[in-house]
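pinging the channel bc i need a second pair of eyes. not urgent but kinda urgent?? the chain im working w is below, pasted from the shared doc
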Amino acid sequence: MDWDNARIFLAIYRNGTLRGAAALLQIDQATAGRRLAALETSLDARLFLRTPSGYVPTAAGEQAFAAAERMEQAADQLQRQMQGLDHRLSGVVRVATSETVASYFIMEAVRRLHRQHPDIRIALSTSIQISNLTRREADLAIRNVKPDNPDLILRHLARRDVGLFASKSYIAARGEPRQGTAFAGHTLVTYQQSVLPGWSDTFCGEPTGNGHIAMEVNSGLMIIEAVAAGLGIGELPVHMASKYPDLVRIWPHRSEPYDLWLVMHGDLNRTARVRAVADAIVEVFEED
């Protein structure tokens, strides 16, 4: 099985469409289709059923996926091991984190890093979805969930709290909610259910069943902006909300803690540029 063709097959399998696979791999859709056809010809097997809703793997496709995934794991491991021998303080380091962490911590870390190591280039991806470090979707990640993969190295960066906030204009117009009423008579801002299922069920331990969801977003920064704009009550990181003077904290005695972890694959621990980026991130968190 040709690895280049197998790589495209994996992308189609995971995305379900040629377009999605091509976008992920940054190639054109026609190339992805030709590579898939070449793989099917070489294996003398139909790997996908083409349906109106996308590409559905056949039984042969399922078997091919297992084999191609083993190839991917071996290729990724080889690349990580070679990177682990790299002592140059130059090149690309891919960092994955949320928009809020990137805005409040990573930008400062990169600013400091570039003073010392201007040849290190950061490729930053911001999402609340968790990147797969084993598949090399990132070299470093900052997560609020502690991973249990034994191949990953992690460092606890900080423990923070989320609290309830609303804008001064919202409080002036609607007043504060009463505890024990499940936000009756109030509007709320929350994450989309498809992004974080169950997030909007409670805010700081208070059920939200009687509240009206005014807006659902897929970004922590957008929750802060929506609450600051007076659209409703939101659950926000306390240390970030304090930078918005128009925000008022509701029920200050109620909060929910969360942890932040710096995570990298063990094979990259000795890569000089990755270590330099990790050290800069740790330094910023230690000073906060």
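so The chain has three domains: 3-84, 87-157+260-287, 160-257. and Residues 102 and 189 are 21 Å apart (CA to CA). — does that match what u expected or am i reading it wrong
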